Structures are given as structure tokens and as C-alpha cells.
Amino acid sequence: MARWAIAIHGGAGVDPNLPEHRQEEAKRVLARCLQVGVDALRAGAKALDVVEAVVRELETDPFFNSGRGSALTRRGTVEMEASIMDGRGRRCGAVSGVSTVKNPVSLARLVMDKSPHSYLAFDGAEDFAREQGLEVVDNSYFITEDNVGMLKLAKEANSILFDYRIPLAGSDTCSAQAGSENHNGMVMNGLPISIYAPETVGCAVVDSSGFCAAATSTGGLMNKMTGRIGDSPLIGSGTYACELCAVSCTGEGEAIIRSTLARDVAAVMEYRGAGLQEAVDYCVKERLDEGFAGLIAVSRTGEVAYGFNCTGMFRGCATEDGFMEVGIWE
Prior knowledge:
This protein is of the alpha+beta class. 33% of the residues lie in helices and 23% in strands.
């Protein structure tokens, strides 16, 4: 039998001045959600069921940017997206523009299992959720006081820039924010890290049968245009799973889309014969151009790997041999 392994993340790009109590809160959420996956794997659960269950837990907790606690559009509303992929046969499901479905990852799973399609968005996704009997709530359920404040800061920082590589000095407001709140001057998605909401949650799993699966869920960018779609629901960019591995990405969505980051990890393993960590390191270093991102991955042999090129990534992992950790920084 193969050896199971699990990795989770709660977003890449962490304010280096994040207060200690917020760091500890993040670690507690990660540890709790990781334990959900570990318990399921010890009980013999399949990888696909585990990634859905873990991401549901992450969506339900308002700390991270998915489900309740999602980032807000410039109109102050929530538009969520998610995807899930089964390495067996590379089946997949994805949704975008979801505004009332309590757990978008479960809707993505139903798109895969119960529809003839791989991707549904906006009204079509909402209608399908109701047809399938998924729990729906008012959009206000997803909005938190913290994110209302984040949106205000984002607007003051001159919104989301269209060129995500524009120097911070290009905006006087941004420069003021960075000078007072972000000593390293790093920008993600056009915003100083210090006012950049933790972005995206994800899970990658290999079960005791050696089958891999991955799932990713997010509220997207703070102050994004309505209708914007990022990497998280795009198979091959934010999420990918095959016979070799499973990958979930986080960070600058547009950079991840351009690089098809998740699929590239599998491709480097498949075509170059690289190991999991080698493939992750190569893709983070060589495929993101000037973008900032991170990813988690597992292999069919029970390896776990992660990589990021920004100031941190909320993450955790566990393996069948008893290893378990959660972390934020290098």
C-alpha cells in the first residue's frame, strides 16, 4: 500500500508585521483543519473526499479568504470561486461568481460528479447549487468586519492596479501605506502586503491507495472588479491532480494563470523525471516571471512539498509516518 500524505495552505503573501496573536490564530486554524484531514486518512478515506472535507472546514472559518471571510469586490459584495480535481482519470469541477453557496468547493465537486460539464459560473452555478440542494445563505454571511476595513484600505491605496508589476512608488497613496506599514515594500496584486488579505485556501492529498486529489477555494482579490476570475477555479493553473501528484496554488492569480503553475509541477515530474520538491522549486523559480506565489503538493509515493517566493505562506502538512507541522515563514 502507498503512504498517505496531506498538505494545506491558507494563502501566500503574509504581512511581515502580522501581530503575533494573529499568527497564532492562523496556526490554530491550520492545525484544526489539518487534523480533519489526518483523521479521515487514518480512517481510510479517499483523497477526493478528504480534500473536499478539509477545504470545507477552511471555507467555514472566517480567518482565511474563502467562504465566510472572502475578499470583497469593489461593490462590497462577495464573489467566490473553487475547483477540485481527482487524479484518477483527471476528472475535475470548478465554479466562479458564486455569491450564496455556503461551501463553493462542494458545488465544484457536484459539477464534476453530477453535471456533464467541468465548469459553471455565476447564475448557472447558483441555479445548479439549488437544483442539487446545497446549503445557500445570504451574501452578508460571507462578509466580515475585518474585510470591510480591508476594502476601505484597498480603495485608499488606489484600487487594484491593472499591471501587477507596477512599482509601488507609482502611487503616492500606495507609497504612504507601504512606508508606514510594510517595511519591505513588497506588492501583490497591486497592493502593499500590509493591506493584502490572506488569499486562497487549498488542500492536496494522496491516500493509502496512492490516489491523488487537490482542491482550491477563494474569494479572490480585495477590491476586485465584479466578474473577475482568478487562478483558483482554473484547472492547470490554481489546481491540478494526476497519477503523479496533486497541487494547489496561491498568490498573484494573474501570474499563476500565465504560468499554468499547478500543471507545470506535474509536467516537470512527468517529462523531466524530477522529484516532487525539485519540480516545485523549479516552477516557483522559473515560471512566475516577476509574479509572487506559492504552492503545496503531494506525490503518489507520499512525499509532501511546498514552495513560495514571497514573504510567507500559511501552510501545514502531515504524513503517515507521524510527521506534522504548520508554518508561515521560511
